[in-house]
Amino acid sequence: MAIRPTVVLADVRPLTVWFDGDCPICTAEIGLMRRLDRDSVIDFVDLSLPGNHAGEREARLARLHAQTSGGAMVTGAEAFVSMWRVLPSLRPLAALASAPPILWLLERAYRLFLKVRPALQTWVRWGLARRMSSKR
Questions:
Q1: Are the C-beta atoms of residues 44 and 20 closer than 8 Å to each other?
Q2: What is the pLDDT of residue 53?
Q3: Dihedral pair phi/psi, residue 63, rounded to 5°
Q4: Which residue in 13, 30, 98, 119 is a FRET match for 39, CA 20 to 30 A apart?
Q5: For the chain, how far is it from start to end, CA to CA, in angstroms?
Q6: Dist. CA 107–CA 102, nearest whole Å
């Protein structure tokens, strides 16, 4: 009786997304994407955890980054559209957002968000802390 070697298949997901787990806004957004990712097609990498891509960490914290299984790296609005594209419930949104003028507008909105993100983070953290203290 011949013994067949065990073949281990790599966990290759269509998309890897790096995010800032210390950002309450980012964590909420990724939480929504995780709930929509019923087939676990996205590998979410929390950059706030030790050892997660130390050499590229700062650049990946500055903007949302996503990489396809084919190796293409996209950032910003295009990274969001890449997530939407692999999630069945968001594919129609991805198709609409992929149109050059729409993607251009989304990128401009994302750049504006990045400018106000620190203030928004402070405001959200303050609101969360206030909510937690009122529950006591």
A1: no
A2: 62
A3: -145, 150
A4: 98
A5: 67
A6: 9
Tell me the two tokens of residue 33. Answer: 């994407």
Residue 133 φ/ψ, nearest 5 degrees? -70, -30
Closest by alpha carbon to 33, among 70, 66, 72, 69?
66
The answer to whether residue 7 is domain-embedded is: no
Cβ of 125: how many Cβ atoms within 10 Å? 14
**Residue 67 resides in a domain:** yes
pLDDT of residue 54 exceeding 80: no
pLDDT of 104: 97
Strand partners, 19: 46
DSSP class of 7 = -
In DSSP notation, 34-45 reads HHH-TT--EEEE
Give the range of the structural domain holding residue 125, as residue numbers without chain letter. Answer: 15-134
pTM over 0.85: no
